Amino acid sequence: MTDRSYTTSFTVDQTPAQAFAAISNVRGWWSETIEGDTSRVGEKFKYRYEDLHRCEIQIRELIPNSRVVWHVLDNYFSFTQDRSEWKGTDILFEIARKGEQTEVTFTHLGLVPDFECYDACSDGWHTYVSGSLRDLIATGAGRPNVGEAITESEQLLTR
Known about the structure:
This protein is an alpha+beta fold and 159 residues long. The protein is 26% helix and 35% strand. The protein has four helices and seven strands; from the N terminus they run E-H-H-E-E-E-E-E-E-H-H. Strands 1-7-6-5-4-3-2 form a seven-stranded antiparallel beta sheet. A hairpin with a 3-residue loop joins strand 4 (53-63) and strand 5. The longest helix is centred in the last third of the chain and has 22 residues, at 118-139. It is globular, with a radius of gyration of 15 Å. The N and C termini lie far apart (39 Å).
């Protein structure tokens, strides 16, 4: 059976340590309004974007310079029939040295094309992970959500 979960990867010239630090700086690449600790195993944090999306995530695994695993404890979407589609899914960041570069592979385990939110969510993850997180690692400056629609999906859903 093939896993159809959303996944994306990118490479940067920085070290695995720099990538790991940036991933843990969730406010620096996803949203400045994250509430809670994002840097210790067992801690929980909350994400919210207007009334479209909110979730509570627990950090399950932090292996320095190698791996980060989050578990979605609760989720709410205003734009899907099953408002809790992410609930119970895992979000995985894998970091590996590839020659002179570092590869970051992001997988949202359980976020599959069958989900009603898949198009909007994969658009969001692409923007925040392959764009903002990559920029944070590569340049030291990400492009987190600061309360305005950033992705095309956010723009369409907030009209």
